Amino acid sequence: MPKDNTVKSLKRAIAVLDCFSQKEPELGVTEIARKLDMQKSTIFNILTTFQESGILIKNPSNNKYQLGYKLLHLSYIINSGISIREDFLPFMKEIANATGEVCYFGLLDGLEVLYIDAVYPMTQLQARNILGERAPLYCTGLGKAMLANLSEEQINEVLSGPMPPFTKCTITDPDVLRIELEEIRQNGFAVDNMEHEFGIRCVAVPVFGLSGKILGAVSVSGPSPRFDPPTIVRTAAIITEKLKTLQRCY
Amino acid sequence: MPKDNTVKSLKRAIAVLDCFSQKEPELGVTEIARKLDMQKSTIFNILTTFQESGILIKNPSNNKYQLGYKLLHLSYIINSGISIREDFLPFMKEIANATGEVCYFGLLDGLEVLYIDAVYPMTQLQARNILGERAPLYCTGLGKAMLANLSEEQINEVLSGPMPPFTKCTITDPDVLRIELEEIRQNGFAVDNMEHEFGIRCVAVPVFGLSGKILGAVSVSGPSPRFDPPTIVRTAAIITEKLKTLQRCY
DNA sequence: AATATCTGTTCAGTAATACAGAACAGCTCC
DNA sequence: GGAGCTGTTCTGTATTACTGAACAGATATT
User: Fold this and answer.
1) Which CATH number is A215's domain given?
2) Is residue A85 over pLDDT 60?
3) Do B69 and B191 lie in a common domain?
4) CATH number at residue B56
């Protein structure tokens, strides 16, 4: 039996943190205990510790917990360290203004899309912050652009996992997706045809690091009526062209 | 000996997280062990566990660790839950445009300022994101506006703690600060006279919750030449006036 | 209004495990 | 080539985290 060098009680505590989501931002002791199939008292001790340190906040009115401001601060430290974010910002502004649509930039994190930034064209109002949002690889433009450039092994892992349909356009058949991934590699861009959000089409171009490995992707998305096939091809060309002008060091 | 209901190994792990800062975003095993006066192997196990779960990332080139993207995601969940943020946004835009200077909004978190948002006037380019940044209470406009409205006990705690000077204008004498806090209470606004950043003046107005407790503050700041005493008073009046129009539910 | 059934909380004993400490390995710099 | 760093591995022991049951407070039900 090899040693695994991990602190198991810490693993349990992190599992507790992972219970919180946008849909369930507030959870109680029993709720979490049921989710993780653990003892109430165990969860209670973990929650108390997290609360004392500011990682969780306890709502006194209903005794439920939510993620605390300390996490916001930790995230700020990361954010100020993501230099790639600032490098891409002017570049994204150009794309947003050249296309007149929203431009997204996402990184590959594990086997998920991690949204880093959204830039709106001058004509649109800047909306909410999306830094830190996540989305699956199989049904988003950014995701498919990255997925197509992963190893066969990683692709299998994604395609063999659960792929719940987000809209009636979501591609849930692994074989159909495999064919599309080949097309993406040949074209150099991926298209999301309302697969993640109905009525929204999206074109995404992969971004590679200097080592040749996939880093992330840049996309432009908007209402489907404005995104007919010719527009899609033209938009992909614009992004690809602008990407070439970008000096990077990753 | 009363039970404390906390998981001590988790406390240690959180202490490890707290070692990371903007100045030291990357730390090694020995470095952390020295900081916390703990065994190297203990830190190693904690770091390994954090890394496996994505909370920390290990840089393979130098074996140092940094905060990972999972924290970014957790912070995103919080962010989308801070409704006060969106409530204040249009209001801050009005102030930024009415004064032509940057408008800040911060919450009181513990005994520190937690920056929530910065809005730049139309004439200035939006700069970096500051959500999650922190600053002390004793030497910032936002901080002093809040500090003046805390309990005597909390004020003592801040004034008796270390108050390192950020600039040559930073007020480090508790007695001088006490007099100023009284002025702030009477005037209804606080002034930061280059105490945190040299050359930058700032006017801040406190924001109270419905219960009457201090929640945070709103400030306007800019280069000192533009912020002479009459301008400061006028700016404070603008913020106060706009604040009255804000319907809140906190 | 009284009971039932949820919550969150406390506590003591035991089984698990986290940590100390030493030894090893890989690296850089003298 | 060795001396000083790193990070990593490993084992025994003492700490302590978890189990499980009992209690308390709130809410819902009858």
Assistant:
1) 3.30.450.40
2) yes
3) no
4) 1.10.10.10
Identify which of A121, A132, A106 has the alpha carbon closest to the alpha carbon of residue A192. Answer: A106
* C-alpha–C-alpha distance, residues A200 and A225, integer Å: 9
pLDDT tens, residue by residue, A142-188: 999 999 999 999 999 999 999 999 999 999 999 999 999 999 999 99
| A118 and A68 part of one domain | no
Phi-psi label, residue B246: left if phi above 0, alpha if psi -120 to 50, beta otherwise = beta
Strand D proximal to B6 Cβ, under 7 A: yes
Distances A182 to A30, A144, A155, A242 between C-alpha atoms, Å: 47, 11, 12, 24
Q: How far is the CA of B55 from the C1' of D2 (A)?
A: 39
Global pTM?
A: 0.88
Mean pLDDT for back-to-back runs of 10 residues, chain B (250 residues): 80 96 93 94 96 93 92 90 83 91 94 92 71 95 98 96 96 96 97 96 92 91 93 94 76
B28: Cβ under 7 Å from strand D?
yes
For residue A1, being part of any structural domain is answered with: no
Co-location of B139 and B106 in the same domain: yes
User: Do A38 and A104 belong together in one domain?
Assistant: no
Task: Determine what percent of chain A is predicted with pLDDT higher than 70.
Answer: 95
Task: Report yes or no on B26 lying in a domain.
Answer: yes
Chain B residue numbers with beta carbons less than 8 Å from the beta carbon of A131 are 72, 76, 129
**Nearest by Cα to A55 from A8, A18, A5:** A18
Structural domain contains residue A49: yes
